[in-house]
Amino acid sequence: MAKKKNEWLDWIKALLVALGLALIIRMFLFTPIIVDGPSMQPTLHDRDQMIVNKFTYRFWEPERFDIIVFHANTEKDFIKRIIGLPGEHVEMKDDVLYINGEEVAEPFLQDQKDEMESYEILTNDFTLENLPGEYEVIPEEHVLVLGDNRRNSTDSRVLGVIPMDQVVGKTELIYWPFDRLQIVGE
């Protein structure tokens, strides 16, 4: 009888340790997210399931074109692409991205642009000064984000620049649906 009792205690201990590890991993390292809506199409699709790396930005600085998850408000997290970094001036003119006055290619948009008529534009003109906050350059510890579906995205053009303390993490792995299993980036 004592042997059975010890066996049950061992199982309970193992289960508690496993639950504790799962909780630590989810809170501090990785967490799943489900893409909600079309704002990142065609890169990400509505209902794609992804893994968010929550520790990357504790050790490395964000990079242009990283896809991040951030707290848009108290109820909702958004997933967007970093376009502008701290200290930079961002402008979009005639569907061309300019960072500090230099043209920057956005290769992840090329297929969309190729499908458009010559008179159509994907991204309306804007400058950093026209966005909420009216900054001349992106402040330290902030990033400017845009959705890949520029015609249907609530991003920095509406929200302003995003404080890094609101960033949950970087995401690049689609794990479901299985036929879309891939690492996304540029």
Q: Could you describe the 3D structure shown?
A:
It is found in: Cell membrane; Membrane. The chain crosses the membrane at residues 12-35. The protein has helices at 2-29, 56-59, 110-115, 156-159; strands spanning 30-34, 49-53, 67-71, 77-84, 90-93, 96-99, 102-104, 126-127, 142-146, 162-163, 167-176, 182-183. The radius of gyration is 21 Å and the shape is elongated. The chain has 186 residues and is α+β, with helices and mostly antiparallel strands. Strands 1, 2, 3, 4, 9, 10, 11 and 12 form an eight-stranded antiparallel β-sheet that branches. It has four helices and twelve strands, in the order αββαβββββαββαβββ. The protein has a single domain (32-183), classed as Umud Fragment, subunit A (Ribbon), CATH 2.10.109.
**What string gives the helices and strands in order?**
HEEHEEEEEHEEHEEE
The number of domains is: 1
Q: What is the number of strand segments? A: 12
Please identify the structural class as seen in this structure.
alpha+beta
Helical proportion, percent range: 10-25%
Mean pLDDT value: 88
Membrane topology: Single-pass type II membrane protein
Enzyme class: hydrolase
Domain Peptidase S26: 8-176
EC number: 3.4.21.89
